[in-house]
Amino acid sequence: MGFFVEVLLSGLMAGVLYSLVALGFVLIFKASGVFNFAQGAMVLFAALTFVRLLDILKDSFAPITLSLIITIAMMVMLAMAIERLVLRPLVNQPGISLFMATLGIAYFLDGFGQTLWGSDIYTLDIGIPKGSIFILESVFDGGILVAKEDLVATVIAGLLVVTLAIFFQKTRIGRALRAVADDHQAAQSIGIPLNYIWVIVWTVAGLVALVAGVIWGSKLGVQFSLSLIALKALPVLILGGFESVLGAIVGGLIIGAGEKLSEIYIGPYVGGGIEYWFAYMLALGFLMFRPQGLFGEVHIDRV
Amino acid sequence: MTQNANLLSIKNIEVIYDHVILVLKGVSLDVPEGSIVALLGGNGAGKSTTLKSISNLLQAERGDVTKGSIIFKDERIDKLNPSIVVKKGIVQVMEGRHCFAHLTIEENLLTGAFTRTASRREIADSLEKVYNYFPRLKQRRSSLAGFTSGGEQQMTAVGRALMAKPKMILLDEPSMGLAPQIVSEIFEIVENLNKKENVSFLLAEQNTTVALRHADYGYILENGRIVMDGPANELANNEDVKEFYLGISGAGRKSFRDAKHYRRRKRWLA
């Protein structure tokens, strides 16, 4: 039993990291109906910028804070540039055009980030505790082994999600974001400036990408493969629903836990490797039986 | 009414879509402060385009005002960003309602106050006022707008526009797809708002009978030109208007062939 819980927990915590990436997708999809293929590239770009700045500023008085501030400024500028150069000329174009545009942004960012900062693998250390600890020793014999960094990541992700949920549901800007997601033109007709909203939403997505990039980066090192975790976010989105912040979280947890559990308990019978395709199979199943995902919005059509 | 009492005046505007399609061929009209002005005409006459050129929602549809000027409170407002036009006091209620389907009725209304820098208190007061005019919305305040009836959506759209505290509302085809009873209910409220809140209306309608009953003044648009204008009661009694738009003919039933011929000639003269 202790072993099962241990596997489950490690899966859930890996899932939290998937959720973080998926969140970035959800934000942009909610506010503009665009599937932002560049989210993975943004994760890489943010992490690269951060890790390199950390290196440049290592002798200053507060390297982490300073690099964080500069990286955030970079993400804001990136959001403004994307709005000005890509989104504004494409107002009222079909979703697929915008999707193709984000493909372009993804390749640009991959290349630009690596040209600017180099394409080596960088280790990122911002003082997230490493190593493992035993918890719940009184409940289970021998306790449960968890990685400290996973615990920290979980707490950070939790805070981020709560903040975002409040932002979207309760604030004036959050409401405007949802309004724009529903109907661009109507939002414009009541005076919501689309340009401003898009800058905000891409900035928020950029910040989420930064958080995801820093956490993933300190786990795996900052390298090109970070931009590929976007592919893992895809099944998470299909499972949770493209419009739901909650869905991104629950989807990530299910996929994380499912991967680890299936690997441990079913893997031995089929020769292992389930981890790599489990998420996609689950997504396929969902596409067939519940295409809007667990928490996605059912398309409202009045007849 | 004197010239300077005009809240909005459009002078000879020309609108071209996609750089080639000429839709408005020199339209001029005035909306005096505190009045309801109806813009009438059939499909494709240019009613919506006229409204959208005022609110400047044209840009997103690749439309462009190439000639003429639009003056609101002695100030040119053509070429302004749509959100600035709203801030200056003109809100458009678009054809087909365009509520935010996944927001509740109340959230829909609240988004209407986006451009206002008002305190929570003032916004809550405005909300209460809208609920007073549309009691039905209050009952349904927490249902998703996408699941409400067409009439309720139209009310939400008008209420949402009111939340911006506009001087003027551009109302595009409020009767579309609604039962006659709901249509007259909505027009009653429009007239009420006009009198009590001093909001001026520019109203694009195909439903000429209802529009002329509630408006002060009317313009008739055909093929991108104003072909006739006058006080609403005069228009309603005009023989041509009666025949073409109200379906009433002085000489009883007329052969369809004659009617078509006469009408075609008229359009050419226009």
Give an account of the 3D structure.
The complex is a heterodimer of chains A (303) and B (270). Chain A is mainly alpha-helical. Chain A has one domain (2-289): ABC transporter involved in vitamin B12 uptake, BtuC, CATH 1.10.3470. Chain A is 72% helix and 3% strand. Chain A is built from twelve helices and two strands; from the N terminus they run H-H-H-H-E-E-H-H-H-H-H-H-H-H. Chain A has helices at 2-32, 39-56, 63-87, 95-117, 148-170, 172-182, 184-189, 194-220, 229-240, 245-265, 267-270, 274-289, and strands at 132-135, 144-147. Chain A has a two-stranded antiparallel sheet with strand order 1-2. In chain A, a hairpin with an 8-residue loop joins strand 1 (132-135) and strand 2 (144-147). In chain A, helix 2 (39-56) runs antiparallel to helix 3 and helix 6 crosses helix 8. Chain A is globular and about 65 Å long. Chain A starts with a helix and ends in a 14-residue tail after the last helix. With 270 residues, chain B is of the alpha/beta class. Chain B has two domains: 3-237, Rossmann fold (3-Layer(aba) Sandwich), CATH 3.40.50; 238-270, no CATH class. Helix content of chain B is 40%, strand content 26%. Chain B has eleven helices and ten strands. In chain B, the strands form two sheets. Chain B has a six-stranded mixed beta sheet with strand order 6-7-8-3-9-10, with helices on both faces. In chain B, strand 4 (63-72) and strand 5 (75-76) form a beta hairpin. The interface between A and B is medium-sized, with 24 and 35 residues.
How would you sum up this structure in a few lines?
The complex is a heterodimer of chains A (303) and B (270). By secondary structure, chain A is an all-alpha fold. Chain A has one domain: ABC transporter involved in vitamin B12 uptake, BtuC.
Indicate the CATH topology of the largest domain in chain B.
Rossmann fold
Helix/strand-derived category of chain A reads: mainly alpha
> What is the residue-mean pLDDT of chain B, rounded to a whole number?
88
User: What do we call the CATH homologous superfamily of the largest domain in chain B?
Assistant: P-loop containing nucleotide triphosphate hydrolases
Number of strands of chain B: 10
The CATH top-level class label of the largest domain in chain B: Alpha Beta
